[in-house]
Amino acid sequence: MALPTRFLLELAAVLRLAAWERQGFRRKLPDDLPTAEEAFADLLDRWTAQTPPSANDADPPLLTQVVMTWFMCFAWNGWEELQVDVLLDADSERQLVEELADYLWKHRRTGTI
Length: 113
Known about the structure:
Elements: H1 5-22, H2 36-47, H3 61-73, H4 78-82, H5 93-106
Helix pairs in contact: 1-2, 1-3
C-alpha cells in the first residue's frame, strides 16, 4: 500500500526539522516553527483522525514553513557541496562576507574547503 504524497511531504518536513535540531540549529530557527517532536505528533494526529486530510487540500502548512525557513536561513548548496545544512547566521551581509573570508583564509592551505 502506498502512502499519500501529502503525508510523505509533511513527513519529509518533520525529518528536516529533526536534522536541524540534531545539528544544534533549534535556537536559531524561527520561534513559530514547531519542534520535530511536536510536528510529528501533529502529523500522526491529523492522519489518524476520522477524516484525514484530502489530496485536494492546500500544501501542508509545516511543509511551507520548513521550505521558507530553508530558503531564508540556509545556504542553498549546502547539501550539494558539503553534504550538510549550512545555517547562515549573520546580522548583516557584510558580517557574513567577513566571516566567510576569515574561514577561507584560515583554510587556504588545507585543500579541504
